[in-house]
Amino acid sequence: MARTGNRRAGRGLVALIVITIGAAVAALDQISKAWALAALVPYHQTEFWPPLVNFVLVFNKSAAFSIGADQTWIFTIVSSLAAIALLATIRKIESLSWALLSGLLLGGVLGNLVDRLVREPGVGFGQVVDFIQIPLNFPIFNVADIAISTVAVVTIIRLFRGDRIGKTHGAARSSRGGKR
After folding, report:
1. Cross-strand pairs, 130
2. Higher confidence at residue 164 or residue 143?
3. Active site residue 130
4. Fewer CB atoms < 10 Å away: N or C end of the chain?
5. Is 145 annotated as catalytic?
6. How many other C-beta atoms can be found within 10 angstroms of the C-beta atom of residue 26?
7. 97 — phi, psi (to 5°)?
């Protein structure tokens, strides 16, 4: 009995962590975009920390690296489904580190989804606000993109280490039949 109660409490804490971090990242993303819209001139470079970081306000109607230009409605649907899937799988997360990553991912997905829902030219077709520029002709991005990219890199590293998505380190090791 006590074990079931502990699992429920643990799942509740995981859900709280995922949702809180997701909301915080999405809010930070939207606040930073509101600042960019108010402070920056579209398509004009503003030095911030040259030569490492500059700001250039652009409006993106595609996905990362200009994939799917003019297919914004598809990204609206995919982002909506991704957010729903993340929320639906919260109960399967067993570790704090995966809860943190899930929260970052949820926040990043929601941050860009909000743009696609509320920005011009209209619901489902809105352009994502991007404004952070780094050297080497890297695409211009935003806070939501940073969160999503961070999750992707850390997840890939963890998978190469043998971790299983959502599981504790011990569960991944024990399923392989030994310790590291």
Report:
1. 58
2. 143
3. yes
4. N
5. yes
6. 23
7. -65, -40
